[in-house]
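Practice problem 4.
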């Protein structure tokens, strides 16, 4: 639109200029002709000079008027251009610039909101400090991890209370020669803080950023791994020491048959204990690494429990226990790995037999609730202290270590039972009181409930 207006104005200006120029040229030619006529018709010089003088005055007047018209027309065209072309166009350009600026501001605001949303929902903590050590950015996770209050506004306010060997100068100027990773313990939690400098557009240091990660679970797993190694070493050391001691004694000779038989029984007992420990460790390892293939099938849980009871009849008779098994009618078939569930039941029944005093009573109930079949084993044994109930599924955890070892336990039975039931979609719960007995409830999904 503006191009068409500019073209029209340019054409009008050229035509107007040509008309004025042509008019002036015409006047000059006319004046020259008049002078020539005067010279040719008049012999009196004085008269010629007077007439030429008048013609010159008229010429100057005509040129002045033409120049004035040209100036007036030029001013009018300029005014028109300024008012109706230049100003609207400038207004349009300014409006376009404002729109572009608004778009850029909206884009910056959108990115800012995105960053704030990301920081708000990050599980890791983020703190940014300027060169003066003042906080310029912090997210809620960082405040939670480091217990940062309103009074903590600077780098040293936050990290000085943790006695860290770190300062901003080291991070900024000695990044390649200084460890910028620190571990902090806060109550029962552990966090790792990574410090790194950030730079401006001129590639100059502009501050420090601290990234805080919660590593509590990693530390716990690391500690559990160390405890496991220590426990395994201890559990293996005891029988190995016994075996070596009795074997060396036998090699010295000079003992009667009864003593030799006694020593050999101890060696055999400790060897079986080591074998059970290694077997249990291998079982746990297979479950941990998902190398144990679970072969699920449908089977009658009541029949399996009765069969387990029959297998343990010798131990039951030795201690004179009274064991009764009650199976509720119409218990549906369960759907799980039969060998695994049998192992769990044998483990729980064996514990009840071991830790129930002679001539005790053990009751077994097999029933069905919702989509799970259950086995409830209740004894009147020695029981488990309340403070130990939360830890009995930990590996190598024993309520009474001396007694457990004496009875041949490895401290891994309940851990294996829980792993097995987890893999088969079941569960195990234990309630107990010291001196009153223990109640164990094992849940196993039915075929119908597993679909």
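Answer key:
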């Amino acid at each position: 639109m503006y191009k068409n207006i500019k073209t029209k104005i340019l054409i009008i200006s050229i035509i107007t200029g040509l008309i004025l120029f042509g008019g002036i040229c015409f006047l000059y030619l006319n004046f020259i002709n008049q002078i020539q006529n005067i010279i040719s018709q008049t012999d009196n010089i004085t008269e010629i000079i007077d007439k030429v003088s008048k013609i010159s005055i008229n010429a100057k007047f005509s040129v002045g008027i033409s120049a004035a018209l040209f100036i007036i027309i030029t001013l009018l065209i300029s005014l028109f251009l300024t008012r109706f072309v230049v100003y609207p166009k400038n207004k349009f350009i300014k409006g376009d610039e404002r729109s572009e600026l608004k778009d850029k501001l909206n884009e910056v605001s959108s990115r800012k909101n995105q960053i704030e949303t990301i920081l708000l929902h990050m599980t890791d903590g983020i703190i940014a400090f300027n060169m003066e050590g003042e906080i310029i950015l912090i997210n809620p996770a960082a405040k939670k991890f480091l217990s940062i209050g309103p009074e903590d506004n600077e780098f040293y306010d936050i990290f000085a209370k943790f006695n860290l060997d770190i300062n901003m100068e080291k991070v900024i100027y000695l990044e390649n020669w200084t460890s910028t990773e620190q571990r902090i313990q806060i109550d029962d939690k552990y966090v790792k803080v990574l410090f790194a400098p950030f730079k401006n557009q001129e590639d100059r240091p502009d501050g420090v950023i601290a990234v805080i990660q919660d590593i509590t679970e990693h530390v716990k797993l690391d500690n559990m791994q160390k405890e496991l190694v220590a426990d395994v070493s201890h559990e293996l050391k005891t029988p190995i020491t016994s075996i070596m001691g009795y074997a060396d004694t036998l090699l010295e000779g000079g003992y009667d048959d009864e003593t030799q038989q006694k020593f050999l029984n101890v060696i055999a007992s400790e060897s079986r204990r080591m074998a059970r420990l290694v077997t249990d460790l291998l079982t746990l390892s297979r479950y941990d690494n998902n190398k144990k293939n679970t072969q699920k099938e449908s089977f009658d849980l009541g029949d399996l429990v009765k069969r387990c009871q029959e297998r343990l009849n010798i131990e039951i008779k030795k201690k004179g226990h009274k064991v009764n098994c009650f199976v509720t009618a119409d218990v549906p078939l369960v759907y799980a790995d039969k060998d695994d569930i049998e192992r769990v039941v044998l483990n729980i029944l064996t514990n009840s037999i071991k830790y129930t005093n002679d001539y005790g009573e053990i009751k077994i109930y097999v029933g069905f609730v919702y989509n799970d079949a259950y086995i409830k084993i209740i004894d009147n044994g020695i029981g488990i202290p309340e403070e130990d109930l939360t830890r009995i599924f930990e590996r190598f955890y024993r309520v009474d270590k001396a007694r457990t070892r004496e009875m041949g336990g490895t401290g891994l039975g309940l851990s294996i039972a829980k792993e097995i039931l987890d893999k088969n979609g079941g569960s195990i719960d234990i309630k107990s009181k010291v001196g009153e007995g223990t109640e164990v409830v094992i849940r196993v999904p039915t075929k119908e409930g597993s679909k």
